[in-house]
Amino acid sequence: MTKPKIICWDLDETLGSFRNIISVRSGDAYPGPDDSYVLRKDIIKTLNRMLNKGYRHVVTSSAKLDYSQKVLQAVCLDAYFDHVFGRDKVTDGMWGKKYAPAAEKYGLNPSDASAQMLVIANMPSDEPIDSAIVFLHDERLLDESALIYETIAESLWTQGEGSFKHGFEALFQGGRRTTCLDKDFDFVVVSARIDGGITADMGYKNSPCTAGLKVPTIMNIRMA
Known about the structure:
Elements: E1 5-9, E2 16-17, H1 22-26, E3 38-39, H2 43-52, E4 55-60, H3 65-74, E5 83-85, H4 87-90, H5 100-105, H6 110-116, E6 117-121, E7 134-137, H7 147-159, H8 164-173, E8 176-179, E9 185-195, E10 198-206, E11 214-223
Parallel strand pairs: 1-4, 1-6, 4-5, 6-7, 7-11
Antiparallel strand pairs: 2-3, 8-9, 9-10, 10-11
Helix pairs in contact: 7-8
């Protein structure tokens, strides 16, 4: 049986900017004449390409479920996602997200989740707090192409021989070590060449919420 490759997407400022979809916020019929939004560059192309390669997409948002679902419907992205999770399922406070609800939908235990799930989000507070799932933290603006996510995911999966976690470990071990004084990390951050001219910083971040949890984190993505 083929292992599912599951991408957990944050909603706002990762898939796009949706704060100006006034009809969704006001509860009116949508789309409305004053609505506007911006999708991340190449996001539809990326979602389609990844679906064709066997990836499954879910949304894990700190916004309310009703808002998240209506936004996706309003911008015609809802068909790309198997499941949508709002704040009632994924947030437990001011920091971090729980990804177990998404894992359970695919019958994954925590060990399987760390191998078969990848989180893509723009905020540090989107990091996993319930398992060591690879966290792709990208603060770049929406005019940066989403196609880079496909390349990174494919590289992790291939390097890890069917495991995002093992792919991260392989790239981390082969990276150029840099000095890190940030105690949020395990005192070691590496600059790694991923694929397709992409480099990024990688490190194991100490979770501020879960004792002993080190989150494999990819950040500061750039083209070489």
